[in-house]
């Protein structure tokens, strides 16, 4: 599923739970990681010789740790801006996933300040996993990202790839929560969609819990993630812009900003990345 993952790292902090949790991806077929530390071209501290050398040494140390655990590991230290560099490297390697971290309510100052996570999601056609380095206390602990996945779907054609990937993930641990947010006039259609998807899950040995809710999609997703103690919200990277696959829907943006747990953004079109 995720044989090759590009992992965005930065070594301002001595605490690196993002890297410590990479072993969890082995259950989803991880065989190779590319660790990428982008030296920001607009940050003089990043470009100093001392910082480059220290960051390179830490990359090599983590590379050795992961290699000892049985993974193939490459390291990259490009100069530029994080989002385009990560997208370019992932595309060049033919990776199946980009993994990066977010700290609580705000994006990581060291590397992902501003809207880098959202910008990366706009620039890549790969799934993007945004892991909470310090998740909300109401969610599961870090390092259990795939233990309780929740799929939020509107059953549109564009949501098909997210639904398929959620079923793949659910099959690994035997459980999946499926959420559909609608309005009062379309509850019956929503219930039918939930039942169809739950039947697909059952065929694959997945115990599916369905939730039919009304309200603002992003707010409902946050509320249900908290109530269900979901470890991961899986959403489609939707959008109606002129470059459809690079557009990012408003719900996906709000989920990235506000969801208390980790978020997996899945591109709309199947066939662009390898499942």
From TrEMBL:
Instruction: Domain (UspA): give its ranges.
Output: 1-130, 150-267
Output the Pfam families linked to this UniProt entry.
Answer: Usp
Looking up Gene3D superfamilies in the UniProt record yields:
HUPs (3.40.50.620)
InterPro entries given in the database record? Rossmann-like_a/b/a_fold, Universal_stress_UspA, UspA
Q: Which domain of life is it from?
A: Bacteria
Provide the transmembrane region boundaries.
Answer: none
Q: What SUPFAM superfamilies does the database record attribute to this sequence?
A: Adenine nucleotide alpha hydrolases-like
Which PANTHER family does this entry report, sorted A to Z? STRESS RESPONSE PROTEIN NHAX, UNIVERSAL STRESS PROTEIN UP12
Query: What does the similarity note say?
Result: Belongs to the universal stress protein A family.
Give the protein's recorded name.
Universal stress protein UspA
Originating organism: Halorhodospira neutriphila
């Amino acid at each position: 599923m995720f044989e090759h993952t590009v992992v965005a790292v930065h070594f301002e902090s001595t605490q690196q739970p993002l890297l410590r949790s990479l072993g969890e991806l082995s259950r989803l077929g991880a065989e190779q990681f590319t660790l990428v530390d982008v030296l920001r071209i607009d940050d003089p501290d990043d470009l100093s010789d001392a910082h480059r050398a220290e960051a390179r040494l830490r990359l090599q140390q983590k590379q050795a740790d992961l290699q000892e655990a049985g993974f193939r590991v490459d390291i990259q230290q490009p100069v530029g801006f994080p989002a385009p560099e990560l997208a370019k490297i992932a595309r060049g390697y033919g990776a199946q996933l980009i993994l990066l971290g977010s700290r609580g309510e705000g994006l990581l100052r060291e590397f992902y300040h501003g809207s880098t996570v959202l910008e990366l999601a706009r620039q890549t056609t790969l799934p993007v996993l945004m892991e909470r380095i310090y998740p909300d206390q109401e969610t599961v602990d870090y390092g259990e990202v795939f233990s309780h996945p929740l799929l939020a779907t509107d059953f549109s054609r564009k949501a098909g790839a997210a639904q398929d990937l959620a079923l793949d993930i659910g099959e690994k641990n035997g459980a999946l929560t499926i959420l559909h947010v609608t309005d009062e006039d379309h509850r019956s259609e929503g219930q039918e969609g939930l039942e169809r998807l739950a039947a697909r899950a059952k065929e694959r040995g997945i115990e599916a819990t369905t939730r039919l809710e009304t309200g603002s999609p992003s707010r409902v997703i946050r509320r249900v993630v908290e109530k269900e103690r979901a470890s991961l919200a899986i959403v489609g990277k939707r959008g109606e812009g002129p470059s459809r696959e690079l557009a990012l829907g408003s719900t996906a943006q709000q989920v990235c900003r506000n969801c208390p747990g980790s978020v997996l953004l899945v591109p709309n079109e199947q066939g662009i990345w390898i499942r």
